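[audit] Reproducing an earlier prediction to check determinism. Same input, same settings, fresh worker. If the tokens differ from the archived copy the diff job will pick it up downstream; this log only records the rerun itself.
[audit] input (450 residues):
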Amino acid sequence: MNLGDLTPKQKQFCQARSRYIAYGGARGGGKTHVLRTKACMGALAYPGIRILIIRREYPELEQTVIIPMRKMIPQQLAVYNGTMHMFTFINGSIIKFGHYGANDDLEYQGQEYDWIFMDEATQFTEYQFRVLGACLRGASRIPRRMYLTCNPGGIGHFWVKRLFVTRDYRDGEREQDYTFIQATVRDNPYLLEGSPEYVMQLELLPEDKRAAWLNGDWDAMSGVFFPEITRKAHMIKDFWRVPDEWRKYRVIDYGLDMFVCLWVAVDFDGRSYVYREVLKPNLIVSQAAELMLAMTMPWENISATIGPPDMWGRTKDSGKTMAELFAQNGVGLLKASNNRVQGWMALKEALKPMKNPEDRPGLLICESCKQLFDNLQTIQHSEKDPNDCATEPHDITHAPDALRYYAITRLLGADRPVSQETPDLGEEGITDYDDAMTGGEVNDGYLTYG
């Protein structure tokens, strides 16, 4: 097997040597073909190599990868075990196939592979990517690599874009570990020759899908629920200290899987600012309340703490509601509505410019609230109701849900301080108050003030 039947972009993918290598960016670039080819080449080049090919849903993996590979690999080189979902090669190499849904974390924790292929990587969360990355280990001297194929859009759009396209790295991430080969249908002469009408089909798509699927534009994705959210419009620098005069609120989403608290300030014009966030799993109520109070500064006067309505349901073990338990631990709660559609619409209204298209939005997010911002940019439309958000992957829904509770709860903005006008002292420099104190006539006006 050689590189002769690969396009120049596909050859770049096969020859890349960084730890994480992504290929694609548009439809028709030949992602699945190069994935199959590279996996087979690795199995033959490195005797005993352990390879995992994974996709979110197994039926899709079987149709696009497994069945073509069974036709592609001669039986004298490898046999396929349908029960194990695995090719075993005569040199001891294996290619294992699997799916990775929302609740399959434990299936991959502790496993060891030399190479891992993530087909359609933007269908996975960053957490799933990191779980699989932890499986790249073993005692052999085979270079450990993860290969990804991807298109713009999907729940993993932003982490794939961040790591491979915009290359915005965080602590512990190294630029040299990530390689991206951008390929579109125009880089695939085999498809252009065999299906010339395919480009015409892509050109007839709506603008956002056409830009993403034909041109590989990572800024024109489809499917996200809040396409209006941008860093330029909605993200601001952190406050050194939020003005004391502004009203301040806390809003929470609570569960043992994740506790979320957002701190929101409202200025004199009614504009909201999310200025602090905490997201932490595995906290009981007393711990969550303690953390919330500890992160609230002594000078912050919190007008209300908003919670979801399910916290008013009584628990079986104590007969008390979560709201009562929070109150017993020093945090009284205001009950929010759980009308999801109305809540999302209220949040979309808050994200619009307040007065005119040139004005700043009615809700801004400080740059330290990164998890909230990333989750809002990532969360997708529900497949069942276009007016609702998808509830999967669940780990990115907690912070947006908390902000939804804030948006649907009608709250007051800050009161502008009343300007104190200098009293008119008159020609003799004597006020009515002075006159009253010096024996002048006291009238009704002295008893009232504005």
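[audit] rerun output stored. Observation attached for the diff report: The radius of gyration is 29 Å.
[audit] end
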